[in-house]
Amino acid sequence: MSGSSEREKRKAERLRAESATDAGERRTRLMQLAAGAAFLAVAVVLVLIVVNSSSSGSGGDTKLEGAAEVNQRLAGIPQEGMVLGDPKAPVEVVEFADLQCPYCKAFTEEALPPIIENQVKNGEVKLAFHNFTIIGEQSLPAGAAALAAGAQRRGWNFVELFYRNQGAEASGYADDAFLEAVAKGAGIKDLGKWNAERDKFTAEVEETTAEAERLGFNGTPSIAIRGPKTDGLEAIETPGSTGDLEAAIEAAE
After folding, report:
1. What distance in Å separates the CA atoms of residue 243 and residue 210, rounded to the nearest whole number?
2. Helix axes 176-185, 139-150, angle to 10 degrees
């Protein structure tokens, strides 16, 4: 084979190698672009879902869950206003909460049930719910609606059922239709009276919010306790578990 032919052969092989390299790089760039486009598409969809779910303003779901369970669990326990349990119980635990607060929901659903089942039912402890409205503009009418339910001895049923069906914070779900659905599910007998009285409890919601601030609370849920060994109503660190709350109750007895 001549030297010229050998050079032509090496040149052809080099061109083929360079072409293959360029093609590989193009494929890599295309795959990167495709992956980026797919990521952006997913991100856009997620953003749209969040925006639509949080800003639709269409109100909450009026087909509630958990009404029968809540009413059955609280059946037979005395209620007076927003106090659950024997009025003569020596220890009172006061929960300052906002009905729209997800942490209040978690505390009520996780830490309180054993206390209700044992110390409250045994007459050792009574639980009081005080509104501390910090989430949004619907927290005030929601709190007043709970107090109106309390006037018919269904306040804790209202609170717990509200929590069971709580929507995203300040998303507009807690409208009149949602509150009325909660009232019905909580077993309020005179809905007309409940509806007519809601506004008059607004001042009390504002009073307990001011009370929470005087006690030095700046978040929800916040807990205070009153008992034979306390100096009146004392603010305590929010219990992280049922056991922590039981220890605080024992210290107050």
Report:
1. 29
2. 30
Q: Which residue has the tokens 């998303």?
A: 171
Cβ neighbours, 10 Å, residue 132 = 28
Residue 60 domain flag? no
Q: Is position 40 within any domain?
A: yes
Specify whether 127 is located in the same domain as 167.
yes
Domain enclosing residue 39, as ranges: 1-55
Task: Give the pairing type, strands 91-97 and 125-131.
Answer: parallel
Q: Please enumerate in sequence order all residues whose Cβ is within 8 A of that of 224, keeping only pairs 6 or more positions apart, or say none.
A: 93, 94, 96, 215, 233, 234, 235, 236
Instruction: Tell me which DSSP letter residue 59 carries.
Output: -
pLDDT, tens digit, for every residue of 195-250? 999 999 999 999 999 999 999 999 999 999 999 999 999 999 999 999 999 999 99
Query: What pLDDT sits at residue 62?
Result: 85
Q: Which tokens belong to 58? A: 């269409």
